[in-house]
Amino acid sequence: MYRTHTCGELRLADQEKNVTLCGWIQRSRDLGGMTFIDLRDRYGVTQLVFNMDTDALLCNEARRLGREFVITAEGRVTERSNKNPKMPTGDIEILVSRLNILNTSLTPPFTIEDESDGGDELRMKYRYLDLRRNPLKNNLLLRHQMAYETRSYLNSQRFIEVETPVLIKSTPEGARDFVVPSRVNPGQFYALPQSPQTFKQLLMVAGYDRYMQIVKCFRDEDLRADRQPEFTQIDCEMSFVHQEDILAMFEGLVRHLFQSIKGIAFNEPFPRLTYAEVLEKYGNDKPDLRFGMEFVEMTGKAKGRGFSVLDSAAYIGAIVAPGCSEYSRKQLDELTEFVKKPQVGAKGLIYIRLGTDGTVKSSMDKFYTAEDMLEMAATAGAVPGDLILILAGDRIPTQKALSELRLEMGNRLGLRSKGVFRPLWVVDFPLLEWDGATDRFYAMHHPFTSPKAADIGYLDTDPARIRANAYDCVINGVEVGGGSIRIHEEQLQKKMFKTLGFTDEEAERQFGFLMSAFRYGAPPHGGIAFGFDRLVSLFAGEDSIRDVIAFPKNNAARDVMADCPSEIADEQLKELSIRVQKS
Q1: Can you give the pTM of this predicted structure?
Q2: Which residue ranges does the chain devote to CATH 3.30.930.10?
Q3: Which of 98, 229, 270, 287 has its CA 20 to 30 A from that of 474?
């Protein structure tokens, strides 16, 4: 071994030991007759000392070392005279007696410190340097620990990890597939899996009643902070279970991760809210429960005063911002501009301010008396000192806009602390979504999701009414996991395909292998998949999953470090029977 110890393990108890350390030079300081070097490896930082009086040659050699040089240093552990309580090794230093340069380094394009001066694109281009910084290193260590604890918990529950194929059949339902041409089958293509969905169901048919896999998945979709073209799932399936069994099992997994990783115990069961409830109270299906501000519907209460904005609205909703009655005109104008943003979509904002002195001020006070507005405030549960914010319009877009306004107010009031976690289950999703553009239903989750037994009859009469045996795990406004009880009977699966607009031939072509398996004794089964990257970023307090992935893509789905995707040689294209059409 090059080293006897790491740069993070030596303490005062190791005084007078002769040691050898290896690592990268974090920084160097020349102070007259002394030179100090901070040597860094994955485990920490240790200070090296070179003394001009005792070994001028060695000290001069140390002064020629640059940042990120790779060295070994031999020496004796001594107590530091000026201790650094911010470093675990801050009580000791190494009096170096021998130095060996293992490799030199160019000057890095950005400072490799916790707070770097490099922008996102620059740091992604030199990701191998960025990964030397503590924030990313700690995120990858956290990721490792969470993967370990996930496997530990699921192993204790008798799950087995089974690898599923990466080259699969394309099933273009949902996001776009990444496709892979086959050289030995010209003109034919594999797809990369968006999830191992059909394979884990086949494992249930095969009798492996508890499957898990920490697995790579691929979706060719537009990117955002919590999306990457390739991502990782904790993928699980169970046989002979009801929805309640799965919720209990995987609530247990989430509790285990919080307890083992962060030392956080949840004393109460996770709340369970229906899809209809969360839309009515929060305007979206992944609500942030770290704060209140539930929606209050004012549609019946606010109409009939001659204010056309409200009188013509199909839905009038309000939230109460506690203690915000002193918001200035400028702050209210900022909120108005916020709700008018295209991604929010409201036409304007109405407010009622309840002063602590009993006064009532509003942007609609020429249509409503103070008594009218106090009555509306009572309906909303507002008290003196509060600010009522009202949006009006068609129900679904107005609830969506009010949801964005609620989250904005949560941010402004500091109610969305990254150190607070509020998990819940959202259940009873609609089975299907109608798309007017294509004039057909689509599966809200996927076509193998089972309908509620009580709603199966609506497949023939009113598909939009059907509730799914589906569930999402949501934490702090982030959907971290989702799953369903699956259809396991061939005839019900055929009826589902028919409702989705598949012909028998199309269903057979895409899913014939699964339908065939159902004829050989498929057990009742269901499962869930957690977004592992999202879970890790939530635990790490990061806003983007890129910060917990070793080598992510940028917002244009490019790897700027390896410079891909890239063109391939004509010879390769010819082998694959592909011709590229230039746009």
Answers
A1: 0.93
A2: 134-267+529-575
A3: 229
To the question of domain 134-267+529-575 being in CATH 2.40.340.10, the answer is no
C-alpha to C-alpha distance for 386 and 354, rounded to whole angstroms = 6
User: Residues of CATH 3.30.1360.30 domain(s) within the chain?
Assistant: 291-412
Q: Is the pLDDT of residue 153 over 80?
A: yes
* CA–CA separation, 551 and 143 (whole Å): 13
Q: Which of 567, 553, 574, 578 is nearest to 220 (CA)?
A: 553
**What tens digit of pLDDT does each residue of 225-249 get?**
788 999 999 999 999 999 999 999 9
- Whose tokens are 């070179």? That residue is 50
Please say whether the beta carbons of 90 and 80 come within 8 A.
yes
Gap between the Cα atoms of 371 and 30, Å rounded: 75
Q: Which fold has domain 12-103?
A: OB fold (Dihydrolipoamide Acetyltransferase, E2P) (2.40.50)
Q: Which residues contact 418 (CB under 8 A, 6 or more apart)?
A: 541
Where are the domain boundaries for CATH 2.40.50.140 in the chain? 12-103
At 173 the pLDDT is: 60
What's the 3-state SS for 61-85? Answer: HHHCCCCCCEEEEEEEEEECCCCCC
Burial class (CB in 10 A: 0-12, 13-18, 19+), 544: middle
User: Which fold is adopted by the domain 291-412?
Assistant: Gyrase A; domain 2 (3.30.1360)
Interval 16-28: pLDDT, tens: 999 999 999 999 9
- Phi, psi values for residue 89, rounded to 5°: -95, 15
Residues 111, 96 contacting (CB under 8 angstroms): no
